[in-house]
């Protein structure tokens, strides 16, 4: 079960100036503690998975609903979560392999950036920029957490 | 940052007012303003006297005029929109004046020669350098709506469009030749036919005010343009009427490029761009004529994207749209280049894309790796968080500011908070002092729930619904002083 990081975004009008660091930290820390609190017995791998999802979720929430990638990311997260809650159905046919006859340069990027498949190139670039910004913020945050815990963290 | 938000928000309001008033109302406002303003040189007292009659917006409170007098007489031009008052109230300084001055210069030009403009110009560098990127992207994204409108309208464009509309309006106003609001709106109204463009030209000529730009247009429409000296090549190539019809559009386009390329050097940039043949902008926009009536803001934004064919280039509407698109893409690639470390020397889109992809992949891998590490850190995490917060509190000395900012941020979801206070209060991450952290969290949980009403378009439920977990968030772990002096080793990106 994914840690609940859902929180109404208090910055609905956040333009493209990147995520709110504070909100990111707030959400992620909360999610983190929740993960550790709810299932302390689960394996590290499962927990790390959850933490990772929490990281992405808090990232997406901090970015706000105005970004396509954050919406797509949350869609994906919630979809996965709903799917896990339901019986473990066999995975659907999945994404049909795109006939890559013409390799557009943006294909790799589209795969990486959530929600990138449905965009045109310009928006894709913009979303990528925002996504990179948010990702780097998230990484910094996590790194600082890890650092603050210190080498004696275990 | 927050100044930007407020500015944009205010401009959005003002632009909304423009659009709501449409042509006559806005022009009436402008004309109402102009005789008053022309009668009054930039004088605080007279401006103060002017302010009350012009104050249509309730936002123009008393403290604001006294707050900064120099920008006052710019103010009442903005009082038409009214939204900028919030800007100036929030951020009083030279930078926000740049915007109001820009807007005012637009109004000024209607009545007086742009003698005001030189004083306002210096604001642009300070302003443009900061907002340039935002302006660039919002305008670009807004113009991208043009493409996406053809392909597939998406909701993500809608807010971007709005922002772009705002920025567009700003940029439109940022030059002396910017049209009045009605013209900006009437331009898209002239979509669809070249005849209309000529009508528009004549209408513009007729209704032109005393501005230099207008006079220049009427006098020698060859391209004496924007007060810049870039007329020569344009003069020979364009017919007067077309140029007049398109001059405003070109100014808008040039404004866009100017804004993008460090505004005040608009002359040089415009010179470079003005190796342009005549082009019926309406041709370019005629394909959007059908969508004209859809949305005022969209139409006004369409008016922003007008382009001109460069000399020797095809004037096909498709190729011009393609050119616009390519330039947008290049702008964004440049921005990405700055964002991705170590990519400044890389040239070429393909290599750049690969670098970006690698960088995104590396970031995602880092997140995964760090999450693994965090999963392993389990037992101490509860109070490590507190420690972390406290440590960051030590590092950042703006704790009251951070608290205030945090509370404000959480409590006023509709108003963009003073992000800047938060931003510079914290070096890397958290700035919430641990002792007040819980308190602020608890205090602001309910306001968040009640205040936040605006759902995202698709994620309605998840954004809104929330069970605020753990009000008793982190028990009572006191901040451990053990880790106080540990500097957060932010990832060396």
How would you briefly describe this protein structure?
The complex is a heterodimer of chains A (154) and B (493). By secondary structure, chain A is mainly α.
Structure description:
The complex is a heterodimer of chains A (154) and B (493). By secondary structure, chain A is mainly alpha-helical. Helix content of chain A is 59%, strand content 0%. Chain A contains 5 helices and no strands. In chain B, α6 crosses α9 (157-174) and α8 (123-151) packs across α9 (157-174). The longest helix of chain B is centred in the N-terminal third of the chain and has 38 residues, at 2-39. In chain B, 66% of the residues lie in helices and 0% in strands. Chain B has a domain at 318-386: Irregular (MYOD Basic-Helix-Loop-Helix Domain, subunit B), CATH 4.10.280. At the A-B interface, α1, α2, α3, α4 and α5 of A face α1, α8, α9, α18 and α19 of B.
Itemize the secondary structure elements and their pairings.
The complex is a heterodimer of chains A (154) and B (493).
Chain A lengths: L20 H18 L5 H20 L4 H18 L21 H6 L8 H29 L5
Chain B lengths: L1 H38 L4 H11 L8 H5 L4 H7 L5 H7 L3 H18 L5 H4 L2 H29 L5 H18 L6 H9 L4 H13 L5 H8 L12 H6 L2 H21 L5 H8 L7 H6 L9 H7 L14 H23 L9 H28 L4 H15 L3 H13 L7 H7 L8 H18 L8 H5 L29
């Amino acid at each position: 079960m994914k840690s609940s990081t859902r929180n109404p975004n208090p910055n609905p009008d956040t333009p493209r100036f990147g995520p709110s660091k504070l909100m990111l930290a707030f959400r992620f820390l909360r999610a983190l503690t929740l993960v550790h609190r709810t299932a302390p017995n689960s394996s590290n791998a499962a927990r790390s998975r959850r933490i990772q999802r929490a990281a992405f979720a808090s990232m997406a929430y901090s970015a706000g609903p105005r970004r396509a990638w954050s919406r797509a990311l949350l869609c994906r997260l919630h979809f996965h979560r709903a799917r896990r809650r339901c019986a473990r159905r066999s995975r659907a046919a999945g994404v049909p392999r795109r006939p890559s006859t013409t390799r557009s340069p943006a294909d790799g990027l589209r795969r990486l950036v959530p929600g990138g498949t449905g965009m045109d190139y310009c928006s894709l670039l913009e979303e990528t920029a925002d996504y990179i910004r948010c990702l780097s913020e998230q990484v910094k945050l996590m790194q600082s957490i890890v650092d603050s815990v210190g080498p004696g963290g275990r | 940052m927050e100044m930007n938000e407020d500015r944009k928000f205010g401009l959005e309001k003002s632009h909304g007012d423009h659009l709501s008033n449409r042509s006559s109302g806005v022009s009436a406002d402008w004309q109402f303003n102009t005789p008053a303003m022309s009668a009054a040189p930039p004088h605080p007292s007279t401006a103060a006297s002017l302010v009350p009659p012009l104050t249509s917006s309730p936002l123009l409170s008393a403290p604001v005029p006294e707050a900064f007098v120099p920008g006052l007489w710019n103010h009442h031009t903005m009082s038409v929109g009214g939204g900028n008052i919030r800007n100036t109230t929030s951020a009083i300084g030279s930078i926000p004046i740049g915007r109001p001055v820009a807007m005012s210069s637009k109004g000024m030009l209607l009545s007086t020669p742009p003698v005001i403009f030189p004083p306002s110009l210096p604001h642009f560098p300070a302003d443009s350098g900061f907002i340039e990127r935002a302006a660039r992207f919002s305008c670009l994204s807004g113009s991208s709506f043009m493409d996406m409108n053809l392909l597939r309208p998406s909701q993500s464009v809608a807010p971007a469009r709005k922002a772009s509309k705002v920025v567009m309006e700003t940029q439109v106003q940022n030059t002396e030749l910017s049209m009045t609001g009605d013209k900006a709106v009437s331009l898209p109204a002239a979509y669809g036919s070249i005849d209309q463009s000529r009508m528009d030209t004549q209408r513009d000529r007729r209704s032109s005010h005393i501005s230099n730009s207008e006079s220049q247009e009427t006098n020698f429409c060859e391209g004496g343009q924007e007060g810049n000296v870039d007329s020569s090549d344009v003069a020979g190539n364009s017919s007067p009427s077309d140029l007049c019809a398109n001059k405003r559009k070109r100014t808008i386009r040039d404004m866009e490029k100017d804004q993008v390329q460090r505004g005040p050097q608009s002359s040089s940039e415009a010179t470079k761009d003005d190796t342009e043949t005549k082009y019926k902008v309406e041709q370019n926009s005629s394909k959007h004529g059908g969508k004209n009536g859809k949305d005022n803001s969209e139409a006004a934004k369409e008016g922003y994207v007008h382009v001109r064919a460069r000399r020797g280039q095809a004037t096909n509407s498709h190729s011009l749209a393609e050119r616009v698109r390519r330039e947008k893409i290049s702008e964004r690639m440049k921005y990405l280049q700055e964002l991705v470390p170590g990519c400044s020397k890389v040239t070429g889109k393909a290599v750049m894309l690969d670098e970006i992809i690698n960088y995104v992949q590396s970031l995602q891998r880092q997140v995964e790796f760090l999450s693994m590490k965090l999963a392993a850190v389990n037992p101490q995490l509860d109070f490590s968080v507190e420690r972390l917060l406290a440590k960051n509190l030590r590092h950042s000395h703006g704790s009251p500011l951070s608290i205030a900012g945090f509370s404000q941020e959480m409590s006023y979801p509709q108003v963009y908070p003073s992000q800047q206070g938060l931003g510079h209060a914290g070096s890397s991450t958290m700035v919430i002092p641990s002792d007040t952290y819980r308190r602020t969290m608890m205090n602001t949980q309910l306001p968040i729930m009640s205040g936040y009403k605006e759902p995202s378009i698709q994620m309605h439920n998840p954004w809104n619904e929330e069970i605020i977990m753990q009000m008793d968030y982190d028990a009572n772990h006191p901040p451990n002083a053990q880790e106080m002096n540990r500097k957060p080793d932010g990832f060396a990106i």
